Amino acid sequence: MALRMILEYEGYEVSEACDGQDALDQLSTRTRPCLILLDLMMPKMNGWEFAEKIEKNHFLSTIPVIIFTAFAERAGKLAATHRVLKKPIGIEFLLEVAQEYCGPPTESEKSPIRAAG
């Protein structure tokens, strides 16, 4: 929730999912995001399962995924294909990552970001 508040304050459009399945459901019905921020520790469908599902989907596999986790050492094979950042993360760095993948936010055209977890 804190990441969402920071990104929205800076002008990014953010959608939040409570677990991996919710994120997949949202991805099937909403505008394609410029970035997915993923937590590995989620109920129902965890981050590893979510990443596996999107990697098998041609459309979704092209969306950059940044894994934010307190357990970076547990990311395992996900670290080979996704950027893994250890929590806690500084606000300035979070905004640099958002701008790297989504560009700067503007008032007229906000960049959608999906947050799972």
Structure report:
The model has no long low-confidence stretch (mean pLDDT 83). Helix content is 37%, strand content 20%. The chain has one domain (2-116): Rossmann fold. The longest helix is centred in the C-terminal third of the chain and has 12 residues, at 91-102. Helix 2 packs parallel to helix 3. Strands 1-5-2-3-4 form a five-stranded parallel β-sheet. Strand 3, helix 4 and strand 4 (83-86) form a beta-alpha-beta unit. It is of the alpha/beta class. The protein is globular, with a radius of gyration of 13 Å. The N and C termini lie close together (9 Å). It has helices at residues 2-9, 20-29, 47-55, 78-81, 91-102; strands at 13-17, 35-38, 65-69, 83-86, 112-116.
Secondary structure layout:
Elements: H1 2-9, E1 13-17, H2 20-29, E2 35-38, H3 47-55, E3 65-69, H4 78-81, E4 83-86, H5 91-102, E5 112-116
Parallel strand pairs: 1-5, 2-3, 2-5, 3-4
Helix pairs in contact: 2-3
